[in-house]
Amino acid sequence: MLGRASSRTASEEQATLETHLHRVALGDRGAFDAVYEQLSGPILGVARRILRDPAQAEEVAQEVLVEIWRTACRFDPARGSARAWALTMAHARAVDRVRSVDAAARREARAAELEVVPPFDEVVEAVEARLDRERVRRCLEGLTELQRESVTLAYYGGYTYSQVAHLLSSPLGTVKTRLRDGLARLRDCLGVGG
């Protein structure tokens, strides 16, 4: 007997919900409050089970409740209960959100792959370095012997101007002049702006 009473209450509840939905379709806000009271918890529950993210589940539940307000006239009691209609809507909207999030993640991953810098090409780099060295060597050959010695000691040997002057047994001012003139000629030869 107890089972009959609870099923009758559920039937009455369903009939009341269907009546409220009919009134919502006519624009009755009070009826929507009653629909909201009965369905918001179950709708949120469906959304949470599918989405796992509470914030997204709340957004989906809100969207479904707004959709119920807008489309209550589409509810057809011949096709199923009001509760099943609302929960089916919640399920579909939550699944759509999961698919949308997955698609966005895939798009971001593809975009990230496109932004990846191509791997370092050792062969190209080696060829370019060799060509650069060859250009510098040719330009060095265009310097006077004194300029070439000064530049080579200072920039390839790592010596200071004073040390270059000592190694070449030349005054410091002369070495600085040779270096300045030699570097100017190298800059011109290599086409480097100065």
Structure overview:
This protein is mainly alpha-helical. Helices cover 81% and strands 0% of the residues. The chain contains 8 helices and no strands. It has helices at residues 2-25, 29-51, 54-71, 82-115, 122-141, 145-156, 161-167, 172-190. α1 crosses α2 (29-51), α2 (29-51) packs across α4 and α3 packs across α4. The longest helix has 34 residues, at 82-115. The protein is rod-shaped, with a radius of gyration of 41 Å. The N and C termini lie far apart (101 Å).
Shape assignment: rod-shaped
Average pLDDT level: 87
Would you report the number of β strands? Answer: 0
Helix-strand topology string: HHHHHHHH
The low-confidence parts are 1-6
The value of Rg in angstroms is 41 Å
Please tally the helical runs, counting DSSP H or I stretches of 4 or more residues.
8
| Biggest pleated-sheet summary | none
Describe the SSE topology.
Layout: H1 2-25, H2 29-51, H3 54-71, H4 82-115, H5 122-141, H6 145-156, H7 161-167, H8 172-190
Task: Fill in the keyword field for this structure.
194 residues
Quick recap of the structure?
About 80% of the residues lie in helices and about 0% in strands. By secondary structure, the protein is mostly helical.
